[in-house]
Every structure is written in structure tokens, then in C-alpha cells.
Amino acid sequence: MENIDPQPQKPTPRPKRELTYIQKVWHTVGIVALLVIVVLIARVAFNVLLMILAATLIATYFHGLGNIIQRKTKWGRKPAMAISVGGSFAIIAALLWFMGTKIQYQVAQLSHSLPGTINAARGKLAETPVGQQVLTYLDDNSGKLFVTAQQFFSTSFGVLGNIYIILFLGIFFTVSPSVYKEGFLIIIPPEKKELWRCIIDRINVSLKGWLKGTLLSMVLITIMLVIGLSIVNIPAVLVLALFAGMLKIIPNFGSMVAMIPGVLLALTVSTNTAIVVALIYMVSQTIVSNIVTPIIQNKIINLPPALTIISQVIMGTLSGALGIILSVPLLAIIVILADELYVKKINEGQPKPEVDAKQVPLTD
Questions:
Q1: Are 53 and 329 in contact (CB under 8 A)?
Q2: Burial 265-277 (b: 16+ CB within 10 A, else e)
Q3: Binning pLDDT at 50, 70 and 90, where does residue 158 land?
Q4: Quick one: which of 131, 139, 200, 266 could link to 273 by a disulfide (CB 3.0–4.6 Å)?
Q5: How many helices, marked H, and strands, marked E, lie in the chain?
Q6: Helix axis angle, 159-175 to 177-186, nearest 10°
Q7: What is the pLDDT of residue 360?
Q8: DSSP state, residue 236
Q9: What are the transmembrane regions (predicted)?
Q10: What pLDDT, on the 0 to 100 scale, is given for residue 238?
């Protein structure tokens, strides 16, 4: 009789060791701490990406100006780019040299008169019931507004550090843009390289359109306010106009913020003067925003106004002033990426709409 080996016995599973309450608490704390660290790293990395985008805009400006010089003069690429970069810095230095003393005097004048201007504005507001409610609200929330403004204008490395990094990155991108473009395309699979070249070209055209419209709008709004406020005899005209011109880079909100100091100064003269100054600001902003800018920005992607405001609020919360300034070009880039990588792909298999033969014009 054959001996039948008994079936091997399965090893008895070891009983699961249940975590104690203290261990569960420490595990939870560790997971939360890890998530917080990841969020903080992502936020810092996002600010770095914004600085790279700002540097890309600087390089786009220099190359766009170089293209114009090259077309007009028929010179080589290197002389055109040298004039583009050197000429831009020379113009800025000349403006600061000729207008620096006047700007400094007007800034001192504005700083000296600002406390009295604010007190005069408070007195004007206190004369009406609505103004009293506004003053009560501002007094109750002054500390909260100060903290919000402080956070709003804070950045990751400080304002001067960010400007330094952005400027030098922009110069490096200007000197050898193909190195960074081809370096990015190296990591793209061969079958996707043509698609990403098309995406980069679309983004380049969109950023150029935004830059042209924004820069010309800043110059025009500055000139119009200098003329308009000079007619009304408002003090510190040049500073107010330059302030409004710089804030023009922030759509929607920049125009409202720029109007505040001008109207406050006008209130020290009379209420009618303040109304006239407010009208000057609104008319200038309307002409530039609704007539001039759309004509120049004909190549930029058409963004819905509500979507622009939402992106500004989100970017301002995440990255402060730099995020608000770059919210529109960043939104344009996101829309282009979504269009090229998603929308066009899902519409590839869709049948094209039938065209009525009667509506098609006949050609000879």
C-alpha cells in the first residue's frame, strides 16, 4: 500500500496588529504634515514658473522689437537685437534722467499732501449718510484690509529679488532662445514634436499680441491723463499718470485702483472737480480698453471677461501682484494648450457640417 502524504498545512495567518490610538494620531499628523509640505513646495514652484513666464515675456518683447528693426533697416539679426536691448535700456535711462527730478518732487509733494487729502475725503464722505456707512465699514475692517494688502503684494523672494531674477532670465532667454526651445523639445516624443512646435508658435503669437496691446495702452493712458489732469490743474499730474499707466498692465482692477489717488486729490479742491477727474479717468480707460487695445491685440486669443476676472482673483490669491499681472497671458497659454491637446482631438472624428449647395457661391 502506497503511503499518501498528508496535505501540507497552510501557515496560520498572523493576527493583524491593530494600531493604538496614539499611533493612529501620529500617522494622521504625519500625513497632514506631508500634504502641507507638498502644498508649500508646489506654491513656491508655481511662483518660480511665474517668474519664468515673466522672463519669457521680456525676451518676447526684445525679439519682437528686434524683428521690427530688422524689417525696417534690413540689417542682420545680431545688430537688430543689440539695438533692441541696448536701445530699450537707453530710453529708460534717458527718461529717468530727464524726468527723475520732477517725478521725485511730485512724489514728495504727493506724500506730503496725502494725509490731508485723506482727512479731507473723510470729511466729504461724513457729510452724507452713505459716506458715513462707508467710513464705518472702513474703520471696522481697516486692520483686515491692511493684512490683505500686505499679503496681496508679497511675493516669494521679495520684490527686488524677483525683478533681479526675472530681468536676468529674460536676458538669457533673449541671447539664445533656440537653446531653451530645442532643449524643451528634446524631451518630447518624436511623433509629438510637430504638435508642440505648433503650440509654441501659437503661444509666441499670443504673447506678442498681448505685449503690443498692453505696452501701447500704458503709453496712451499716461499721455491722455497728463493732458486731461493738467487742464483741471490737479497737482502731481506726472506721478498720477505714470501710476495709472503702470497699473494698466492689470486688467479691470488696475484702472479702478489708479483712479483713487487722483479723485482724492481732486476732493481737496471741490466735489465738482472730483467728478470731472473721475470722468477723465473713465473716458481715458474706456477709449484705450474698448477701441485701441482690441485693434492692436487682434492676434491674441479672445478671452471672456468673466474668465479673465476669475483668473485674476485666483492668481492674486496664490501669487500676489505677480500672479495678477501675469494672469491674462497665463490664461491664454492654458486656453491654447486645452485647444491643441484636447479640443481638437475630440473634434477630429466629428463629421463636418453639411453645406447647402445653394448657399455656396459659384466661382468661374
A1: yes
A2: bbbbbeeebbebb
A3: low
A4: 266
A5: 14, 0
A6: 90
A7: 39
A8: S
A9: 21-42, 48-69, 81-100, 152-175, 215-243, 249-267, 274-297, 309-338
A10: 83
Distance of CA 130 to the CA centre of its chain: 34
Only one residue has cell 452713505, namely: 130
User: Could you read off the pLDDT of 51-64 as tens digits, one per residue?
Assistant: 888 888 898 889 88
CB of 34 closer than 8 Å to CB of 185 = no
234 exposure class (CB count in 10 Å sphere: 0-12, 13-18, 19+): buried
234 phi and psi angles, rounded to 5 deg? -85, 135
What's the CA gap between 116 and 137, in Å, rounded?
A: 21
For the stretch 234-279, pLDDT in tens is: 877 888 888 888 888 877 677 788 888 888 778 777 778 888 888 9
As a whole number of angstroms, the distance between CA 321 and CA 315 comes to 8
| Interatomic CA distance for residues 18 and 26, integer angstroms | 14
Instruction: Pull the grid cell for residue 280.
Output: 477723465
Per DSSP, the three-state class of 255 is helix
Predicted confidence at residue 358, as pLDDT, reads 43
User: What is the distance between the alpha carbons of residues 274 and 263, in angstroms, rounded to a whole number?
Assistant: 5
